[in-house]
Amino acid sequence: MILENALAGAAAAARAFGRTTPADRAAMLRAAADALDAAAGELVPSAMTESRLPEARLTGELARTTFQARLFADRLEQGLLHDVRVDHADPDWPMGPRPDIRRTQVPIGPVLVFAASNFPFAFSVFGGDTVSALAAGCPVVVKAHPGHPGLSRRTAAVVAPHLPDGVFALIEGVDAGAAAVQDPRIKAVGFTGSTRGGRALFDLAASRPEPIPFYGELGSTNPVVVTPAGWAARAEEIATGFAGSVTLGSGQFCTKPGIVLVPDAEAFLAAVPELSAGPMLNERIEGGFCTAAREMAAAVTVARGEVGGGPVLFRSTAVEVLKRPELLELEVFGPAALILEYADVPEALQVLDAVGGQLTGTVQGADTDPDAPELVARLAEHAGRVLWNQWPTGVTVSDAQQHGGPYPATTAPTTTSVGTAAAARFLRPVAFQNIPEAALPAELREGAPGPRRVDGITRA
Amino acid sequence: MILENALAGAAAAARAFGRTTPADRAAMLRAAADALDAAAGELVPSAMTESRLPEARLTGELARTTFQARLFADRLEQGLLHDVRVDHADPDWPMGPRPDIRRTQVPIGPVLVFAASNFPFAFSVFGGDTVSALAAGCPVVVKAHPGHPGLSRRTAAVVAPHLPDGVFALIEGVDAGAAAVQDPRIKAVGFTGSTRGGRALFDLAASRPEPIPFYGELGSTNPVVVTPAGWAARAEEIATGFAGSVTLGSGQFCTKPGIVLVPDAEAFLAAVPELSAGPMLNERIEGGFCTAAREMAAAVTVARGEVGGGPVLFRSTAVEVLKRPELLELEVFGPAALILEYADVPEALQVLDAVGGQLTGTVQGADTDPDAPELVARLAEHAGRVLWNQWPTGVTVSDAQQHGGPYPATTAPTTTSVGTAAAARFLRPVAFQNIPEAALPAELREGAPGPRRVDGITRA
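Output (structure tokens, whole complex):
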């Protein structure tokens, strides 16, 4: 769509769409999800052609995508996307008489979503950013990823008829995306992509006359710590699990384990089975993988594979990378990881403190592992999700999911881009003071259903 | 304190303070609040000397400040500051087997707080930003406001002994504040002050190599709409209430009603009783008031009072200001307001759509007022708090309070700087996947007390 039409349509639709009921929006999300499922026979082949990803993966990803939309619909119907608080008037409130005051959230306004290349369904046109913004009541303008333009247009064509005019639009092109970030009609941005591209757009959003929230999910190297006890007890399981995770989706996941701290690098490398990966998404991403891998190879040893020829493992030590901590943030987007040998757990902890913000951090340990509590606590200081004896690739969509973390994992560390809490990014709190019942939002009226906090007490 | 000592101390203290229990932090907040109350006899006279504010106001403000700290302590003990979510492992989760995943929040890290001049207790050294950050588990470095340096040092001296070493520090000076915003050890900033000063610091925070959240509460003109029915039914009450609100605290509140839309400006002005206000906080603020008032006087009529001589009311019409909408965002910080006559309610709504982001918006109406629902809904699109038949000055501290709004009211429209939800600004969500019970944060363990969402169901 022409950019001006998309922006004007979103601005014109915002008020009416923002006033739809949660049940209205739930019905729209379900209708769009049903339509996408019904179009799987057309969409999946289109995605295969453009992304080089296999059919099974894409079929599963589409199922995940429509499930995600329906989960937001469920939570809308259950009154679980809004944080409702009611404080009745209280003449005895200790700081002075309290008026009747009630808090809910309203949509932030039209949202711009930058689709990602590596999940052509789940993080693209009707992905998590789009459905969480629609659930919040915001019109969405999606900037299509150039990696799958045909699929993007088809997805948009399937979805749009189930949403009111102006509520959904697809735009294309780098310039259109940058112009939209700076347009006063856009009130928030969701982005999934590289640190470099995301930071450039973040800077545009922050430098507007009216700066707006920019929810960028950028880079992560996802450190994994194999404990001494874990390696002693579960060496083969760990090495095999790692091989599967680092090559899953050809390593083209933001949660790919890129840094692995091990007590014995030689033993670990010997135990890792042969690595194989499918083709990469496109030549641009393959080129980026090779460039980053060459940069890493210039600094450390190539222990397995070859730069430019599929999966590759690098090797160094904790002591060495602590002298060059920039290597810990060098994301080699593809089937690659840096294996670091540490002398003792305090040395591994030092590396964790140097890695910067992360989407995930993982501990591979043993039952009653003496190092588990401190490693988990330390990873929680730096990452948005901490795992034990599982692998970070594969991100479930649920209420408790958190996909984010300190910069550069995201530009908005108090938020998530996956899971039902993602809608909060596009909801703005408003307090209603002494407002007559008839003029209150429905969820704030006396006796309205749904969980809430009333006079400081949670009601289920 | 020397800046480097403050920052180094905060960074060194962050880990241990972040791992204190909510009960530990509640006890610290209570001890500090008790110490402040006990020192009232020393603090209030100090505040009177430096702020020119009367004793009764300052005594009340100190009570509000210590109440606020104790309310955060209550909510910590009740488990109400964290949004706890537990999703048990579910092999039948529709998108694929779900691991056990549990979400809570961890402290974001050391917080820098810029104190305000106009509330020497409640928005200063131990004000809302400070106590919400401490409640979240973050060390705080406060940049003292130069309007009350002696009081700031005394307050810090009373509070500091009740907090662990490094957890609280006071710094002074514009340069120290700007340097601290850019220091990598600072992870978030709270600010209350002018749009100009706040925007400059926001720009510094956003342009860091690691950008950080900047929670700035900046300017607002707080529109009030008097409906035709409201004016017919409650003219005297409205005019009297307005006179009290516009002069309260000499108009030096960010919630002062600065724009009043009325059906009959002449009748409104005739009904407003004589306006009187105490001295202003200091010469700098008085100078700023005069400058802004002169700017307004150059564009519209001075209807009451004189520029440079205490309270002043300006007068124009909706039609005129719609031609010069910048006047709607011109905050004349002091006892002043712009009275705008509108021809009909649609014209008043047009003005509301032009006013930009606001902390508050108010409707003064009548019982069964036909215009109430649309005016309330429209103000909710632009403001953080909407009031009916009350006045926006006086901001209660409670769970449902919202003090924020779209830019320029704040730089972070999804957050609040007043009320218990303010702690969320300094809490970063973390998901724990498949973590052994002993390594989980206490609130995430099975059977832990406190409200939570378990497998999609709210538990009180």
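The longest strand of chain A covers residues 101-107.
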